[in-house]
Design goal:
Layout lengths: L6 E5 L5 E5 L5 E10 L4 H12 L9 E4 L5 E10 L2 H13 L3 E4 L1
Antiparallel strand pairs: 1-2, 3-5, 3-6, 4-5
Helix pairs in contact: 1-2
Length: 103
């Protein structure tokens, strides 16, 4: 297992770049995805999650409809194994035509 942690550049008040570790892998990592409340939206999100986390458990998905019911917030929790995995997952989610926002 790769025990390396992602290193992110942080620019300090003195203008110097520092590297700081923010996440320890593997870990449970929640991601919120918002899109129009339509047929197939939740299925599309869970399919993408499974692509990047083969052990993804769809029973853990949390749904939150907007006040008017036009939009749906979907929270998925994946097992994050690397910064690259999370970056690729975010790119896949944001590229999907049903997705409006990924947090």
């Amino acid at each position: 297992m790769d025990d390396t942690k992602p290193i992110l550049p942080i620019i300090g008040g003195d203008g110097q770049t520092r590297r700081e570790t923010l996440i320890e892998y593997p870990c449970a990592f929640p991601i919120k995805v918002m899109g129009r409340h339509q047929d197939g939206f939740v299925g599309a999100i869970t399919q993408i999650a499974r692509t990047f986390d083969p052990d993804f458990d769809a029973s853990t998905v949390e749904l939150r409809p907007s006040r008017a019911g036009n939009y749906l917030g979907v929270t998925i929790t994946v097992t994050a194994t690397s910064r690259e995995q999370l970056d690729d997952l975010y790119r896949a989610l944001t590229a999907h035509p049903m997705v409006k926002v990924v947090l």
